[in-house]
Design goal:
It comes from Paratissierella segnis. This protein is mostly helical. Helices cover about 65% and strands about 0% of the residues.
Length: about 100
């Protein structure tokens, strides 16, 4: 019920919705949150650009805004079994684990 309150859905209306309709409302809510987040990132970006323009050096410029926004919600890449095994082995070494041979 917390989610229904968070998306400003009246309690009485919640019980009248089908699961599909509720899902549409939730998707709409999260899309609005994502757009608000992107807007905040954009404002912070331009604030940084103006600050650098007046106080910084040319080499201090951040990445292009489109690149930053595109990378926000990139899907995680799928690892192969060998890549996962290598990652687990690296983490095992990092935390002092021992490899046991069977």
């Amino acid at each position: 019920m917390k989610l229904a309150a968070e998306i400003e859905l009246p309690f009485s209306e919640f019980w009248e919705l089908t699961p599909y309709e509720f899902n549409l409302k939730v998707e709409s809510y999260y899309n609005k949150k994502e757009e608000n987040f992107k807007e905040k990132i954009t404002l912070e970006y331009w604030n940084a650009m103006w600050t650098i323009q007046w106080l910084g050096k040319k080499s201090d410029r951040p990445k292009p805004l489109n690149e930053i926004l595109d990378n926000l919600y990139k899907e995680n890449k799928v690892m192969t079994d060998k890549q996962m095994l290598n990652q687990v082995m690296a983490l095992n070494r990092l935390f002092g684990g021992v490899v046991e041979q069977k």
